[in-house]
Amino acid sequence: MEAGILAESQVLICCPERHILRLMEVNLKRQGWQVRCTTTGQVAIDQLKQELPSILVLDSEVSNPSYREVIKELRQLPGSNLVKVIVIRNDAEGDDNDGDDEIEFFLRKPFISQDMLK
């Protein structure tokens, strides 16, 4: 599928912590979502260029490049305005409202898996 075409009911998760990544993957698949996973920002960008998910979940600790750079790259792709972006961040990282209009929702760590499904 070429970039710019939105894959319905698909989530791309980018999280460097494999146990959190696996938890999210299992829970979303149980809810009927198609899930793609990666641990680095560059792989997330490469996957976004192949196919846009309905939802992009990014951990704020993503590196190579940072989660903000991944969002910046995403928004340059045709059709990316339809992709909802969720950022998972540590409780100590400050306000959820940090002025970034590109982010639909912040999820704070630690979280229970049901929080992610809301």
What structural keywords apply?
118 residues, alpha/beta, Rossmann fold, five-stranded parallel sheet, 5 strands, globular
Give an overview in words.
- This protein has 118 residues and is an alpha/beta fold.
- It has a single domain, classed as Rossmann fold (3-Layer(aba) Sandwich).
- The chain is built from 4 helices and 5 strands.
- The chain has helices at 18-30, 41-50, 67-74, 113-116, and strands spanning 6-14, 34-38, 52-59, 84-90, 105-109.
- Strands 2-1-3-4-5 form a 5-stranded parallel beta sheet, sandwiched between helices.
- Helix 2 (41-50) runs parallel beside helix 3 (67-74).
- It is globular, with a radius of gyration of 13 Å.
Summary?
This protein has 118 residues and is of the alpha/beta class. It has helices at 18-30, 41-50, 67-74, 113-116, and strands at 6-14, 34-38, 52-59, 84-90, 105-109.
Strand order of the largest sheet: 2-1-3-4-5
What's the end-to-end separation, in Å?
Answer: 28 Å
Largest pleated sheet: 5 strands, parallel
Average residue-wise pLDDT: 82
Question: In terms of topology, how is this protein built?
Answer:
Elements: E1 6-14, H1 18-30, E2 34-38, H2 41-50, E3 52-59, H3 67-74, E4 84-90, E5 105-109, H4 113-116
Helix pairs in contact: 2-3
